Structures are given as structure tokens and as C-alpha cells.
Amino acid sequence: MINFDFLKLLLSKAWLTILLASCMNFIILAQSVALIDSINSSAFRKNKKSESIRFYPAYSFSYQLWQKFNLIKDANNGDAVAQHELGIRYLLGDGFEPDTSAAIDWISKSANQKYYPALYNLSIMYLNGTGVEWNPYTSFSLMNDAAELGMREAQYALGLFYSDNLIVKKDMELTFYWLRKASSNGYLLADEVMNDFLNAGYKPKPTENGESTFVKKNNSTSGAVTTPNLQSNVSALTSLVYLDLSDDSLKSIDNNDIFKSFLRHSKINFDSTDINKSIEEFSFSKYLKKIYEYADYGNPECLTMLGYIYSEGLSVEKNLIKGAEYYFRAIRCESPYAPQLFWQLSKKLYETIDFKREANNGNLSAKYIWAGLINLGFEGDIFKSDAVKLLREASAKGHIFSQIELGINLLNSQSEEMKNDGIKLWREIANTTGNYEAYSRLHLAESSKLENIINIDSILHQLIEINERGGIFAQLTLAHFYENGIGLQQNLGLASNYYRQAASRGSRIGIKSLIRLYNSKRPADLIYRLD
């Protein structure tokens, strides 16, 4: 059973997914695939200098034709390396007109010959639904084959497949086994991820000599080859996010958890000199304007950070009520840290400030916090109707956050009339104030009706803009649109990627939706059972 109340998602340099959103321009070349063993490449084997297929020299037109001729000839003659390269070129439009169907055909032919870069790339294409029907289980099978053949990137990815309890049942023994294999083949990311797991509390089983080892549970191919030690300049194109969807990831929240999440997911462009600073060294005043701006897009990391900034008095005057207000807003934007932080700060408010008196004296933030405590069940002896009353009082005074929360209360009621009132309220907030969080919530709430709206393109454009600034509900709404084909062509791969991005930030909706999407495709094979 997953505890969603204070679910802590461990974030580290892990989980191999390739996420490029709006333009569907998926790059599927990882380290050993970006430079496809140029020595054996049909198009380059006669060149003096081996180059990445993405950065080859501009030769004369006649020479390019000769290259293409040789590549096609070798591919048709069954050369697996040539088949794979031809497929990649068709995919990227590199010397050929872009043709996803032809790309899939040639890469599949290469994969059928067990050429491990082709197995790996085809796996990624199935994982993202790029040119093929989205199927993470086919992706797993292909990745397993590539890993068995000794490809270090595939070994790394397979280890991560075993860690997140989505495709196959979580098995940390197999996770460490494959990460260790990747590490022994020189893949440095595997070392970093193993350290992340160890720091998160996962301990390998010791052997008699004191080293850690794991018994492999699936069949091994003997005589596996080692991936060539190729250089790469495309590692920044991959998005590496590890998801732990189980209760054993829970641990107490400290300042570094909040700060790391803020740096990783807030979407703010930090100066390179600030990225590696500690929370004590970081200059919040330098980015405060941007943090406020992104918070108004419904960015949970920025909202949580503002709660911390106000509760600690960093670059602003210390204000516990304001801090609690931002923490509660972060809760409503799916922050995994905010519930615990909000409750801890609320207890401090009880001890240091009579915030209920503040609320009764007209402090709108205090009314909002009090309503939040009631809605979350911390004020168990007070009826939910009292929360609505407080929110109506603050809303009437123009407190936008109370207006949004009032809309949430109305939408969660049993009455269809009240639900419609909640949607109307969000529409009014969005149209009169331009509040981006209200826009995101409104589009998600009205998604079932959007197919008939003529301005669907402007809605999608707006959602993409909000998502680029970290708005969690825009991210979830885009996932919902892609999953159900609302206003655009259905694409379960993109839906999965958007849900995964939201889940990696701690979104309960993202986690539930991701699990539901994977379960909708789950085969009956025993290996894919999670129970």
C-alpha cells in the first residue's frame, strides 16, 4: 500500500527516460549509441576521422551520395550495423528525409540480429512510443537482451527498471546486480546511482569477504561483449529520474531535501556558480522575483521554498503566517514535502501566535491557514462548513488563494451545482486576474468538454507555457490530454512521460496516473506481476 500523505520520492541521477515534450523531437542516442562504433559504420568506415553520426563533415554532394549508396547496399545485404545506422538516420533526418516508419523497420531488422545498440534504441522508442505503439513491457524485454549482451547503458537502465515497481516487481538485488555490471564496464552513472540508493538506506547483502554481491535471478548469456568505451557529448539530452513508489522510501525531511528538489525541478535557470551551493550559501534574494513569479504558475517547488524562506526569514522579514500560507498552497500543488512542513509550522503558530485571533481580526492569510487545517483534518472538531465560511470571507476581500481553495472545496462536494460553482469561480479568477494556477485547474476540470472548444490550440499553448514554468497542474493536464486524445492525437508515450515528470516531483495524481497507465498495458506474463 502506498502512503500518499507524506510520500517521499527519492530523486537522483537515475531512471533512463528521454523526455522532449511539445515538438515530439525524441533523441534516443545514449552514450554508446550517439557514437555508433564509427570504425564499423558503413557510411564512415573509409573516413580518416571517426565522427558522431550527428556531426559528420560536409563532403561534396557526390561523396554524400556514395556514402548513402554504400549504407543502403550494406543494410540490404543484412549488415546489422548498417541497418541500425540507416534507421537512426531516417529517424533524425540525417542525410535522408525523416521517415519514422522506415527508421523503425531498419532498427528492428538490426535488433533482430541482436545488435545491442539497436536493441537499446528500439527499447527506448517503445518506452516513449516514438514511431511505435507505447509499450514499456516490450521495452523491458529489448533492454534485457541488450543488457545480457554486455551493453553497459542497457545494464544501467535494466537495473533501474527493477527499482521503480512499475514494469516489473521491485527487486533491489537485481537493481544492484545490473548497476554493478554497468559500473564494471566503466559506466560512471551507475556508481552515482548506487551511492544514491545506499544513502537512501538500501544495503547490499555482505558476503564472507565483506564485499556486496547479488544472485542473478534471470538467465545469463555467456561470453557477453563489453560496450566500446566511446566518448559522448549528448549525455545532457537524457533526463534521469528515479522513482521509488514504495513506503520504505519515507524518511524525515531536512532542509537539503527541499533545496535539492527546488534546484532540480523549479524550472528556474540558475547561474552555474549557484547550482552546487548549499542552502546556507545560496543567495535567495538574487532569484526571489523569479521564485514569486513561478510560484504563481502553481510551481510546488517554488511555493515550498517560499514557505521555508518566510518561516526562516531568509532575504525577507520572518513571517510564520506567510510561511504557512505558502506551505498550504504547495500542498494543493502536490508538493510531497509541504504537508509535514505545514503541520510543523502550524504547531509553532499555535505556540507563538494566536493566529485564530488574527483570522478573526481580518488577517486573510490566517483565515486561509485555518481553513486549510480544517480541510486537512488537523482541526477535527470543526466542521468542513466552517472552512468554507472562512474561505468565503477571505475570498470576498479578494484573497486569490482563498478563492482557489474555495473552488477546490466546491468541486469536491457531492452537489453538481456546487461543482459547477467551483469551475465558474476558477474561470472568473482566471479571466479577471490572469492567475495561471486557476487556468491550469480550470482546463483540467473542464477537460471532458474541451473537444468541442474551438480555441483548443490556444489552451494547449497556454498549458505548455505554464508547464515550462513548473506549473504542476499544467503538466498533469497535458498528460491527461495526450492520454485521452483531447485536442491532439493520442500519444500514450508522451502521456507517460508527463505523468512521470509529475510523479518525480512528488505528485500523488502523477503517481496514481502513471501506475494506472502501466497497468492498462500490463501483460499476463508472470514476470510482470507486481503482487
SSE order and pairing:
Blueprint: E1 13-17, H1 31-34, H2 61-76, H3 80-92, H4 100-112, H5 116-128, H6 136-148, H7 152-161, H8 172-184, H9 188-199, E2 239-241, H10 255-265, H11 272-275, H12 284-295, H13 300-312, H14 320-332, H15 338-352, H16 355-360, H17 364-375, H18 384-396, H19 400-411, H20 416-433, H21 436-445, H22 456-468, H23 472-484, H24 492-504, H25 508-520
Antiparallel strand pairs: 1-2
Describe this structure in words.
- Helix content is 56%, strand content 2%.
- The protein contains 25 helices and two strands.
- α4 packs across α5 and α7 runs antiparallel to α8.
- 46% of the residues are buried.
- The N terminus is likely disordered.
Quick synopsis:
The protein is mainly α and 531 residues long. The protein contains 25 helices and two strands.
Output the structural class. mainly alpha
- % residues in beta strands: under 5%
Ends distance = 11 Å
Helix content bin: 55-70%
Descriptors:
531 residues, 25 helices, 2 strands
